[in-house]
Amino acid sequence: MSSSFLISLVIFLFPIMQILEAHERSTTRRQLGPESCRTGNPIDDCWRCDSEWESNRKALADCAVGFGRNAVGGRDGEIYIVKSKDDDPVDPIPGSLRYAVIQEEPLWIIFDHDMVINLKQELVMNSYKTIDGRGFNVQMSNGPCISIYNVSNIIIHNIYIHDCVPAGSAVVRDSPKHYGPRGRSDGDGISIFGSRDIWIDHCTFSHCYDGLIDIVYGSTAITISNNYMFHHNEVMLMGHSDDFSADKNMQVTIAFNFFGDGLVQRMPRCRHGFFHIVNNIYTGWEMYAIGGSANPTINSQGNVFIASNDESTKEVTKHEIISEDDEWKKWNWRSEGDLMLNGAFFTPSGQETPASYMKASSMVARPATSLLTASSPSAGALSCRNSQPC
């Protein structure tokens, strides 16, 4: 690769970094003008050009791609407006976020002002809910965060989730008719357990006690897209344990995310299952970017991997092995159309035939260079204004 091409890529990357790391790396994002709203990102192009997005909020539910594309959230229910940041885990008040997410009917949950929600216990969600933070600066921080536990059809959009901590054993309400004891939570930003048809889009994550997003116990049909993640150690875990065979049916798409400063490992770490990692930007990792164990299938396509200057962290991948045998060489891991910069390299394994990756293919990858040259790229929570393109 010529030095002039590398210089051009750095020039393109610099405004991306400025956009994503502005305003304490949280919620300030450059807006898309009408002349540039089409970016080639199929999710954003589906809804962000609509200046009437506020009155057409539920159109977002038809914009998902990848394995989580069938997640409808609260599309078929009423709009619910969160007016209070107060949190009572046992008797939540009407107008609070917890009151909304435990209801049995579908709900599209929005907010009526900027708010920072400090939960007292983990937020246990019921099926068919959308948490839609567009229009305001909505943060969840300095307490336990979101638990998606044995449910389906959840959309979480445009929330800044940070500094999440474990919750102690406590009584928590999980429906209008039931509350009971919950064990100690892990301190994840979002914990997905035994659930399906889940879509996490345009959120910002950092500084949580355990993982930013963990997906375990047979969860599947999930898309993680357009998120901005920074300053965290164990970013995303996919699969409960090497011995938990139910995770062999897991399918997760990780697309259009920006993995920023201060991330160490697990972007993601995969067990069993099928993982399509497509059109993300990685800007340095302190240990590795993509890893796994227990024979996961990893299909990496159209990503940009920019290694740090540390010569010991150039490798993108890590095959987690218990013994010194060569079993890992049978695992199907491939890199196709990825852009490797500053010495980054990917160690492939397994079969090279397209048929071996069918269950780990969920969408068509864009060319990796297009991620660097887009006129107004964005990831993480958006600063949307009413009556303007978002």
Short descriptors:
mainly beta, 31 strands, 32% strand, Pectate Lyase C-like, 10% helix, 10-stranded parallel β-sheet, 390 residues
Set down the secondary structure blueprint:
Elements: H1 3-25, H2 42-47, E1 78-82, H3 97-101, E2 107-111, E3 115-117, E4 123-124, E5 129-132, E6 138-143, E7 146-149, E8 152-157, E9 160-164, E10 170-175, E11 178-182, E12 190-193, E13 196-201, E14 204-206, E15 213-216, E16 220-225, E17 228-230, E18 232-234, E19 236-238, E20 251-255, E21 258-259, E22 263-265, E23 269-271, E24 274-278, E25 281-283, E26 290-293, E27 297-301, E28 304-306, E29 317-319, E30 333-336, E31 339-341, H4 370-373
Parallel strand pairs: 1-2, 2-5, 3-6, 4-7, 5-8, 6-9, 7-12, 8-13, 9-14, 12-15, 13-16, 14-17, 15-19, 16-20, 17-21, 18-22, 19-23, 20-24, 21-25, 23-26, 24-27, 25-28, 26-29, 27-30, 28-31
Antiparallel strand pairs: 10-11
